[in-house]
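In this supplementary section we document a worked example of the pipeline. Step one takes a protein sequence of length 316 as its only input; no multiple sequence alignment statistics are reported here. Step two produces a three-dimensional model, which step three serialises into structure tokens for compact storage. The input and output of this example are shown verbatim.
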Amino acid sequence: MADIPKRGKPATQPSQRCEHHAHKSQTKTLKLGIPAGSLQDATAELFRRAGFKITFSSRSYYPSIDDDEIECLLIRAQEMARYVEDGVLDAGLTGYDWIQETGAQVHEVAELVFSKVSRRPVRWVLCVPEDSPVQTVKDLEGARIATEAVGLTKRYLEKHGVTARVEFSWGATEVKPPKLADAIVEVTETGSSLRANNLRIVDEVIQSTTRFIANNDAYADPWKKQKIDDIALMLNGAMAAEGKVGLMMNVPDGSVSKVLALLPALQKPTISDLSEEGWVAVNTIIDESIVRHIIPRLKAAGARGIVEYPLTKIID
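The serialised model returned by step three reads:
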């Protein structure tokens, strides 16, 4: 007796499966590295302001993004440049320090000055205990130095003609002097952790900011280059808008010069006629930090209908 088919939804026909896989294989994809760890949330927030929604899963190294042409992968910033150089990733975000540390040959698309704490560059600094007799790098001849950035430190010492023992530090580098090391080379943004561990900065080794980098072969591909450049444009636009707001106001003809004199000199307000004769509309962009000071003065100068509005991107 022939088997009776089980009830249920009909299986996907072979032709349907083929069409699905054919469509998927035809979709071009950019492999994008997102830095895991301290920069992860800041990167996701920057992408959000640029118009991309990245969603992280606690059990996956493959964040989802609302762009079918991008495939994300979480990678430590320390390893990013190497994977981009090798072509495992088409592009990614990492620090200038890690590009220099690994010596990776990659194409730098854009500098993105953001970090986990501030908009200032991070610094790799040479530090010793507060009571150490060391005053310059020359005083570390034959010393033991602990750091996560071994390559950077060795090149720095070579530049100054100093021979010292450089050891890789797996973490908690600040607590190693004086028992486990004579000095350290450590990254800092504010210096608070160094001060808390009674360390004194002797010299700055390198300053670093986040860079958007691309694999050289990927950037030579027209489609990938366009995709990478488009992402860079939107990221830079989001960064340019940070801390800025727009101001719109109506100004009588007789007060235009007084109002313009109050606005920041570097901005070029847009002035347009209103339907009501004798009035113009003024539209400009200013730093959010001065809004509370400038709006009362604009009103006193004759501006009316003043509207402040948020900005998400500024594209030049």
